[in-house]
Specification:
mainly alpha, 3% strand, 8 helices, 74% helix, 2 strands, binds retinal, two-stranded antiparallel sheet, Rhopdopsin 7-helix transmembrane proteins
Length: 237
Amino acid sequence: MIEPSSAVQMWLWIGTIGMALGAAVFVLMAARERPGHRWFHTITFFIAAIAAVAYLGMSLKQGWFPILREGQEMYEPFYWARYVDWFFTTPLLLLDLALLAGASMEAIVWLIGLDIGMILTGFFAGVTSTDVRWIWFGVSAFIFVWILWVLLAEVLKAAKQRPPEVRAKFQQLAILLAVVWSIYPILWILGTEGLGVIGTTPEVASFVIIDLIAKVGFGFLLLSNRKVLDAARPAKA
Ligand code: RET
């Protein structure tokens, strides 16, 4: 039976503490706002809180099982808890961006539906021990490109109708999202779920770092400018 190493455990605890601190700060920022002005704070809080729970489970050595993949020599841990986290948090991140842009309900449903498809098929890829996993990887990657296209075509069009400061914030966050999210499939290919070029420790460490940027870093950038949030507030917040 394999056991996560102490280096892996240390990184997972960094993830837990980082996400929990992020969630705590976001909820404190929400408490300083008037009711009806906390839409983005609320969504962003749940993103960090859900990740904190997933990381806590992994830190407690839960949320994984050993798997021997075709083409690899050793059993490696498969952290399914990661996909549970992503299943809930990636739609919320897209919702934050779509609300900021003032996107149509139709565009929001597209984004969230596609995102759920990307994470589910990505999970199928991760959980499959044979080379069939590469077919699922391809399906998931295809949906990912589709999401970027909806964001950068449809949602950007909506953002262009917004006041200049909201549009600028949308562009900043959309670029951050496109760049940081693109690292996930690359890391997946290099890591134990793909080719196994990098080991479990650097893989877990890299995921912790990009998860913190994608959730807590993104959240801070979004919530840091009250003028932007007020200008972007949905009619019935
Ligand atoms: C997988 C593997 C299959 C192909 C693709 C993937 C993309 C994952 C993404 C995850 C984003 C996660 C975020 C988490 C927040 O902290 C499933 C790795 C395309 C884009 C933003």
